[in-house]
Amino acid sequence: MWVEIICGLIVYRLFRCFFYSDDVLEVETSDANALFSVANRLEKLFGGMVYVGLRIPDADTGTRQNIDIVQVTKGEAVVISVKNLSGFLSVSADGSWVCEGGSKHKTERLPDPVVETKKQASILESYLEQRGVALPEGYFSCKVVLPNPKLRTIHSSYFSSEVITYDQLVQLKPEPKSIISGWIKGAFRGGKKEMQESIHQKLDFILTTAPIWDRLELKGNKYVLGEFLDFKGKQEDIIALKNIRRSKVSRMIIQKMSMFGFGPSTLQVLYSPRDYRSEGASASEWKEVTVRSGTEVLLQPQDSSKVCKFKLSSVVSLSLSA
Question: Pfam families per the record (predicted)?
Fold first, then answer.
């Protein structure tokens, strides 16, 4: 019987090795997926520009402040923190949050996310001023979104109006373009402030070029935010990918796979040379290399000390911060 069990375990591990990536399975319900889901929904509902995974320099501490989402519409913007919590959530006497019975099967305590998000907005505003954009008073507002349907809030009235639960999120409805959404009026804005078009363009340029987390998009609409480290594989494949470095490349796309007889399958990798003078490379500027499908990309996820490996055959694209 033990021989059968051992053989079964070996077959299972081999099956996972060839057909699945452990790292892909781990990120199936990751915080990054929830973050992009929220960003996509808000963009569809209210339009404007949505910036995800920002790392804004904080002059006071000399570190970078992580900001989940910034949504900018005409004359207003909101800094959004996404908390992908599950279980039962309550507010303690000191204002901190306590989450019990979640996916991690332990009690989590969080400093008041609304206070933290307001701090992020202040740091972002200072950063914009340093880059030459002075915004009207009340231009920024803050929201904390709880997108997980498996979360239940205890004594919902204890939570501030800046907190948006899953039920509230799914009930939001888009408004005609000529009408500003009532949700934006009440939640996304701290008073109506018109902004000159030139200021809006400058703001878009700054947020587009601001530091962000590197972004790995996987098949199945999965995402990982973190820091790209390197590639791993056969020497000839590593040499072919040597030009894909953040100083030279802004984006990499896996185009297609081909099979040559009984040899290894290969992937066509397109990459866009970084050009600070334009908004992006044209189709004619994209370059192409061919590598084995077993080649891996090494990335250290946000808020993790672990280096993860992802097979390029499971990757859709990789975007690199400057």
Answer: NERD
Pairing of strands 49-58, 97-100: unpaired
Strands 249-258 and 266-273: antiparallel
Query: Hey, what amino acid is at 276?
Result: Y
Of 145-149, 176-180, 239-243, which range is least confident? 176-180
Q: How confident is the model at residue 24 (pLDDT cuts 50, 70, 90)?
A: very low
- Distance (Å, rounded) from C-alpha 39 to C-alpha 34? 9
> For the domain bounded by 31-209, which CATH number is listed?
3.40.1350
Residues 6+ apart with CB under 8 A from 109: 92, 96, 97, 98, 99
CB-CB contact of 140 with 126 (8 Å): no
Are 216 and 224 a contacting pair, CB within 8 Å?
yes
- CA 27 – CA 301 distance, rounded (Å): 10
Q: Write down the mean pLDDT value for the chain.
A: 82
- b/e per residue 140-157 (b: at least 16 CB within 10 A): bbbbbbbbbeebebeeee
Helix H, strand E, coil C: the string for 271-314 is EEECCCCCCCCCHHHCEEEEEECCCEEEEEECCCCCCEEEEHHH
Which sequence spans correspond to the domains of the chain? 31-209, 214-319
Condensed to tens digits (0 to 9), the pLDDT of residues 96-147 reads: 999 998 766 788 899 999 999 999 999 999 999 999 888 888 889 999 999 9
Q: Report the Cα–Cα distance between both ends of the chain, in Å, rounded.
A: 56
